[in-house]
Every structure is written in C-alpha cells, then in structure tokens.
Amino acid sequence: MRAPGPGPCYAAAVEARAASTEVGQYVDPGAYRSIWELGWPVMVNMGAHTLFSLVDLYWIGALGTNAIAAVSLCGNIMFSMFGLTIIVQSGALAMISRRVGAGSLEGADGAEGISAQAVHLSILLGIVVATLGVLTAQPIMAIFDASAEVTELGTAYLWPMMAGFAPMFPGMALGAIFTATGDTRTPMYVGVASNLLNGVLDPFLIFGWSGLPALGVGGAAYASLICQVLGTLALWRLYRDRDMGFPHPHLLRWYGADAWGRLMRIGVPRGLAALTRPLSTLFLLKVIATFGPAGVAAFGITVRSLSPTWLYQGALITAVSTLTGQSLGRKDLDGIRRLVASSTRMSVLTSIAIALPYWIWARDIVGIFEKNTLEVLVLGETFIRLLLLTNLSTAFALIWSAVMNGAGDTRPPMVLAIASNWLIKLPLAYALAIPLGAGVEGIWWAMAASILFENAGLWLWYRRDRWMHAEV
Fold it and tell me: pLDDT for 36-65, tens place per residue?
C-alpha cells in the first residue's frame, strides 16, 4: 500500500537532489552521455510507433484497396490534429524542467503543483477535442469527395480514433512530467508495450478472431483506443509509484488553475507550429496533383523513405529541450552553450551519416516502392537529394528550436513556421510550378526554399538570446 506522503528518507533525497542542482552538479548538459541517455529512449519509442503503423497497415491491407484509402485519408487528418496534443505537453516540459533544475519542487508553483495542473488541463482539453472530433468525423471525411464506400469506412475508423484524444492528452502530459525530470525510459517502456499490444489486438478486432465481432477498419481504431487508455493508466500508476524527485500526491488533488494560462501561452504556439506543416502540405498536394499521379507518388515515397531521420531529430529535440529547461532553472547558461555545441555536433554528424546512402542510392530507394514509372523515379530522386541538402541546415536549426522550446520561448518558432509554410512555400510553389512552368520540380524547390528561410530565421532569433529571459 502506498504511503500517504513522503517520508524522512524521501525528504532527504529531495534535499540532496535540490542541493546538487543549486551548485550545477545534478547533470552536465553539455556531456554527450547526458544527451544520449535522454535521447535514445525517445528514438526507440518513436521507432516502435513507426513500426506499428506498418503492422497496422498490413492487417488493414487484407480488407482491400478501399480500406487502405480510407485509413490513409484518416491518417492525414490524425497527423494534422496530433499537433494539438503538444499544447500541454510542451508547456509542461518547459515549466517542470525549469523547476526541477531550480530545486523548486513543492507547492502549487513547484514541480508537483505544475504537474497536477498540467494533467488537469490536459484532461479538459482531451475531452473537448475528442467530443468535437467524434461529432465532426463524418463531415470531415466528406471534404475529400471520396467514394461512398471509402467515406463510410473512413468515418467508422475516425470515430474511435477521435475518441482516443481523450486519453491521449493526459498521456502526453504525463510523459512530459517524466521527461522533465530526466526520465525518458518510463514513457518508452509504456509506449513500446502499448504499440506491441496494439499490433496483437488488431487482427482480433478487425477479423473477429476468437469469436470477437469483426469490426473491419473500425477494429483497428478500437484497438488503438484501448491501448491509448491502458497506456495513459499505466503512466498514471507509475507516476504515483516512482520516485520522481519531488513530492507527487494523487494527481486529482486540486492545486488551482493559476498555471493554466502559462501552460497555454507556451504550448499553443508550439501546437500551432506543429499543426501548420501538415495542413499546408494538404494544400500543396492539391497543386502537385494537377500534374498527375507521378508527382503525388514521388512525394509520398520520399516522405516515407526519409522517415528514419525523424527518429534522431525527435530524440535530440526532446533531450535538448529538457536539458535547457533544467539548466535555466540552475541559471547555468554556460551549460546551455556546451549543450548546443555538443548536440549540434551529434545532429550534423548523424545527418551526414544518414544522408550519404540516401544520396548515393536515391533512385534505387524510390525504385523499391515504384520501379515501373520513369517519371516517379526522376522526381523522387530529385526530391530526396534536395531534401538531404536542406536537412543539413535543419541539423543546426532543430537544436536552436529545441533550446527555445525548452526555455518556453515558443512564439518565434511558431511565427517562422507559419511564415515559411503559408507565405513562402505555398505561393512560391504555385508560382514556380504553373506560371513559370517548372512543374513538380518547381514545387520541390519551393519546399527547399521555405525550409532554408525558416532555419535562417531560427538562427537569427536564437542569436538574440531573448529565450534566456522567457518567464515560465
């Protein structure tokens, strides 16, 4: 049975941890080991989710082309809305990591109180988003003007997936609490276990194995919903049972809502930045589609082929954001400079190592997915190599962005994301592709230009050092 409150040994451990934090000995943010220990579990967790999506598609593929088309459309919708879950997650990460670094652990404005308030806010937002998502699932599917069968299948899949936002929001908040204290392994264990269980449940609910009802594409969505609920409950229980380094009473204890405004002020810009990319890409695909299916195929193949780069990028962003928040809490600005130097080296070297085989075998990689259409091979090869070049600048920019996010200075990255995607990418893509006659390759160049613009803006804002003074 869990004790009602922290005992003498727990209090002594907290005091020792806070004391070591005050003298900057709790963690060396510039050490490669510090970055690696925080980053690799994130990479494994993201990899498990990517692998599961392929397993999910495998089982759904047995239902036919219409089922695949329906789930693919829903995937774009869910990916776009996923940015909303970052709202509380990013705010909690910035605020809690700052307090952990400063040794401000107890009370409503300490790590324990901010954690509880973040979870309360996430529960409220999750219910609101899930309810709106379920109510609008059918009208959203109708936007795509797909066949009646695809629309029906997509709606059946989208309803439980939208309902999944209710447990997903608090699950993301709980994961941020663990991460802010330097524990990325616990969310990894829960994430991997949830994805494995999801893969097991899929055929039982899709095809009705062992006497269960055969729910078709909806079965895959219900499997995801079940695993999302179980994963969030597991994180909730682990939060109560683990030594988080600060007092952590039951999360339903009310600490007020004073932190909600700050959580939203940090998180909303972060969520909008994440949301603007997939939304603008949906409009971009309409332009690409005017030139025929080859361009759309080349786009999809390139994005999927380069997905391994997201794993190390996500790992570095999480590690750098967490260490930045903790270091700012200790007022260790020199540590942040070392962190930026070390993580940038890791990012650039990893980018180059990944880019080399892609550059050499670009056309062969495209040919794995489509080898019969020369236009797809040419367009895909060009797109891959162009993105590899811009990715070298992104290797630097993702570190600058992570520092600002960890500091809670999330508005500049949001402004730059909106400007680069809506004011640069879309107008330039249209101008190059149609009036200037560059076709699909003109769209590729417009995308590259927007990425370079955004990365240059991040560098300029990072150099101003205003992120150091962000209040969280």
Answer: 999 999 999 988 887 877 787 778 878 887
For residue 20, what pLDDT is reported? 37
- pLDDT-based confidence at 219, cuts 50/70/90? very high
Place of tokens 């630097």: 396
CB 42, CB 184: distance < 8 Å: yes
Query: Would you say 413 and 405 are in contact if contact means Cβ atoms under 8 Å apart?
Result: yes
List CB contacts of 273: < 8 A, sequence separation 6 or more: 83, 410, 413, 414, 417, 418
pLDDT digits 0-9 by tens, 362-403: 999 888 877 778 888 899 999 999 999 999 999 999 999 999
Q: For 394-406, how does the pLDDT look when each residue is reduced to its tens digit (9 = 90+)?
A: 999 999 999 999 9
> C-alpha distances in angstroms, 70 versus 67, 115, 148, 219?
5, 38, 11, 14
Give the distance, in angstroms, between the CA of residue 360 and the centroid of all CA atoms in the same chain: 29
What are the boundaries of each domain within the chain? 27-258, 266-472
Between CA 295 and CA 379 the distance in angstroms is: 7
